[in-house]
Write a structure and sequence with these properties.
heterodimer, A: alpha+beta, Arc Repressor Mutant, subunit A, Glutaredoxin, 2 domains, 7 helices, 10% strand, B: alpha/beta, Rossmann fold, Ubiquitin-like (UB roll), four-stranded parallel beta sheet, 36% helix
């Protein structure tokens, strides 16, 4: 039950809005953080907390691509396929996933570790090709980097190659400024 | 070394600038807010914005001061400001840089806007994928709150402006202002019929202004250095100020480049972004985001301002300039864009 574990967070979230329904997406995120996806039980509980009907919660939850109504792999590889990344080789990245992990978009590896989704523009077009893995961005992908990312994620659950804050252009000291 | 004076990217280009409150204040941040809140009548702030000629930086380019002017006069109830940080237009990545590298600049703009329009609550609607950006903004808001720039009783003036980060959950359409409002209300992001406009019937059906991140980031400078200064930059009177253009595709140095409006595509692509990445010549480029018609070599001397690009048969849009070299399959490119929509 979300309420038992997160009462304080829930109260804080609801207090930010004059209308309770605005807290819906934040609470759905909380449920997803807890269980790895948004379950029916969670949706029913959230409906109760916000005085909404379960279909009202369900209709919102089904609209948004980042709310998973089913489990995904431990690492959700979201590779950008928009034109700008396409020009920089995003199809090649998709090929690496197919070769190295054996999965196509929408599929999960049999060990449950990696799921592949092709997504649209993640606003990193200057550092393409790139992908988002769960919450982290990995920009300027090369095959070596990609191999290292998969290996690190499998072994340590995280990878130091994750990028951010925004890295390009690199700062230069501007002459004459204090 | 940048050829043109930077405004929005200036702080973050200094080596060692972290975007913290301390760094921002040291760079003269929040001076505009101190100058104005509780001292200059809100209507005068709106007049400054109108005089500056600032036009929305999200893509539609609607004059910001005029938009603010649509709020109902004499209305006593709550008003809202929404910062549109849902940057999802393919080829556009300027707002992400502004958010991640200089969040206080945006916050100062938000509080200035709240003051001008009489809003006590602002929501930054940030796309769900910008997890790092949301964290950075939350941290900056906490810093600004402690320093008295956000919250109730700002700088001891008794004026209130609360700013909250609200994450989206993956929906390009929520960048459209009325769909954004629906989503903020906890519903599916379906656009509303206009009229009525958000200025009279916005968030929770109350008077609301929705402005893009970059639009708001310009406010501290318009207020601090004066609207006449801002209006003298770029291509006055119709396209004033600078814009942060996003260059992607087959160039040597893809990235964001802030230039005055009116600079040519040739300068942006060949000087700022280093020109084509290989010896293949330019075949086509998109001047402003995924719904802008492609332009060719013949259009390189078109100026980057609203009117010139429209006259060339396309649109300045979101500022996302994508360059394609000889050998790129145009049918494939068009298909990729269509799949997005």
């Amino acid at each position: 039950m979300l309420k038992e574990k997160y009462q304080k967070e829930i109260d804080d979230i609801i207090s930010r809005y004059p209308v309770k329904r605005s807290a819906l997406i934040p609470l759905l995120y909380l449920a997803q953080q807890e269980e790895g996806f948004v379950s029916e039980t969670a949706m029913k509980e959230i409906a109760g907390l916000l005085r909404l009907t379960p279909p009202q919660v369900y209709e919102t939850a089904t609209f948004y691509t980042m709310l998973n109504l089913k489990r995904v792999g431990k690492f959700h590889l979201q590779v950008c396929k928009s034109l700008m990344c396409g020009l920089a080789g995003s199809d090649t990245v998709m090929g690496w996933v197919k070769t190295k992990l054996g999965i196509r978009p929408g599929e999960t590896t049999s060990d449950g570790l990696f799921t592949l989704s092709m997504v649209e523009c993640l606003a990193a077009c200057g550092t393409a090709p790139m992908m988002q893995v769960n919450e982290d961005y990995y920009e300027r992908l090369t095959e070596d980097r990609f191999d290292r990312i998969l290996a690190d994620l499998k072994e340590q659950g995280t990878c130091s190659l994750k990028t951010g804050p925004f890295m390009w252009p690199e700062p230069v000291a501007v002459k004459g400024e204090k | 070394m940048p050829k043109h004076e930077l405004i929005l990217l200036k702080n973050m280009m200094q080596a060692g600038y972290t975007g913290s409150l301390q760094d921002y204040e040291r760079a003269s941040g929040y001076q505009a807010l101190r100058k104005v809140v509780g001292k200059v009548p809100p209507a005068e702030v709106t007049a400054m914005v109108m005089k500056s000629g600032l036009r929305g930086r999200g893509g539609a380019g609607f004059p910001t001061g005029v938009k603010w002017g649509f709020l109902p006069k004499g209305y006593q109830g709550p008003r809202y400001l929404c910062c549109n940080a849902d940057e999802s237009e393919p080829g556009t990545f300027k707002d992400r840089q502004l958010i991640e590298r200089d969040p206080h600049q945006i916050l100062e703009g938000i509080v200035l806007a709240c003051y001008a329009i009489g809003a006590e609550t602002a929501y930054i609607y940030i796309r769900g994928e910008f997890v790092l950006g949301a964290r950075i903004l939350e941290r900056a808001i906490a810093e600004a709150r402690t320093a008295g720039y956000i919250g109730t009783n700002i700088l001891g003036t008794g004026i209130t402006a609360n700013v909250w980060v609200h994450r989206g959950a993956g929906a390009y359409i929520c960048g459209e202002e009325t769909a954004l409002l629906e989503s903020l209300e906890g519903k599916r992001g379906l656009p509303r019929v206009k009229p009525p406009f958000p200025a009279t019937h916005g968030l929770y059906n109350k008077p609301t202004v929705v402005n893009n991140v970059e639009t708001l980031a310009n406010l501290p400078y318009i207020v601090g250095r004066g609207p006449e200064w801002f209006a003298s930059i770029g291509s006055p009177p119709k396209s004033t100020g600078t814009r942060v253009f996003c260059v992607s595709g087959h160039v040597k140095r893809p990235g964001n480049y802030e230039v005055p409006m009116g600079v040519t595509f040739r300068e942006l692509i060949y000087e700022e972004a280093g020109g084509m990445r290989s010896d293949k010549p330019l075949k086509a480029f998109i001047p402003g985001g995924a719904s802008a018609p492609f332009l060719t070599q013949n259009h390189l001397d078109v100026k980057l301002d609203f009117e010139s690009v429209a006259a060339a048969g396309s649109m300045l849009g979101s500022g996302g300039v994508t360059v394609m070299e000889e050998g790129t399959d145009m049918v494939w490119a068009a298909l990729r864009l269509m799949e997005f929509f």
